Amino acid sequence: MKRTIRVFSLLLAAVMLLSAQALATEPAQAVTDVEHSGQYLCGLPRVEPAQAFTDVTKQDYFYDAVNWTVEKEITSGVSRDVFAPNQDCTRADFVTFLWRAAGKPVVNYAMSFSDVKESSYYAEAVRWAASLGIVTGLSKNTFGAANAVTREQAVTMLWCFAKQQGFDTTQGGLAIREYNDYDSLSEYAREAMAWAVNTEILKGSNNRLLPDAACTRAQLVTLLYRLESQATDMVNYSGDVTDWMYAPESKDTAVNLLVSIDTVAHGSAGGSLQQANAAVSLMKLAMNESGKVEEAAKTYLAGMNATQKDFFSFQWQQALRQANALLDGSEDPAILDDAGDAGFDLKAVSSAKVDALDKTVTELLRDAGVTDEWKNHTDLEPFNAA
Asked: Which pLDDT value is given to residue 163?
């Protein structure tokens, strides 16, 4: 019996020793897991994911981008402690990044690319991207999965992705023409590259865009991260937007008139009176010097995101309808007395100038990419975005 107890004691001691050795090696693994999950461990400060990589430092321009993409599980390192920021990225890799950023959607779409095997890690990503037109392939039957993705290809994919995700992709401009190699851009990529330059998602090197250069892993996660930073420009039709004001009070009379049109609270007891005020503001704009009004409208629209532009389009249409009703006599001008505009002289307003102003503003809205999301609303409907 004593011998049995002694043997049991020795076995128990051995188990305890092995457990102690295991516990001594587990914390390092635990800390690494915490680093990648972005959580806290025993009250210690958060360890950022990028710190796990020996080839990424806080001084690197892509440090924050690496943190973000690892935390969002868009990508990780090529090994446990190597991110390989300077390694060229393939077209398959970048499409996979975009797919993961979108939440790994599953779609039913028949791909025609002969070089994308159903068993490949990027097959679902390419299927999704092709179904939305984010990628079109190098040819009808070839995706070019293993090819390094060029800067203009990557930006074009990102631009298409941004549109599908609801970002405002209308900010073009002439800034891109200042780059020395602008003429070397492929025609298909010019609009996307102009957008990326104007939003500072893409920054050149020594005044060059380098459209044909291969993109590195660091560059691509940075492009995605900069797009994420544009989140305030995403189209978001949720919630009540009646109280939005898109510009502070200005010394520019024309801008103030635009603001008064844009901030009418429709669907309320005083909505019709405010709409009458907006109509007067529109008519006052029409009687201003057209060039000044056009410049004011351009400046006003330039400060808006896509949702705000759509909403302004609706407000403009409502004010125009009211103005025309006042001018053609179908609306009782007495409403101007109740609205506080009793001194406004309708006879001094030219219908032709109102029409000309509307044409100018409509063209500006079209140039700004307005989608007429609000076109079918009326002032009698609750003004909650669909």
From this structure: 87
Residues 6+ apart with CB under 8 A from 186: 152, 211
Q: What residues pair up with 79 in beta bridges, in sequence order?
A: 82
- Per-residue pLDDT tens over the stretch 276-309: 788 888 888 888 877 788 888 887 777 677 767 7
CA torsion angle for 147, 152, 153, 158 (degrees, to 10)? 130
**Helices of type H across 205-270:** 217-228, 253-262
In angstroms, what is the C-alpha Rg of the chain?
A: 30
Q: Dig out the tokens for 217 from the structure.
A: 């892993």
Q: Has this prediction a pTM greater than 0.90?
A: no
Note the pLDDT of residue 229: 80
Q: Which long-range contacts (CB under 8 A, 24 or more apart) does 161-166 make?
A: 161/98, 161/101, 161/102, 161/129, 161/134, 161/227, 162/227, 162/230, 164/102, 164/132, 164/134, 165/102, 165/234, 166/234, 166/235, 166/236, 166/306
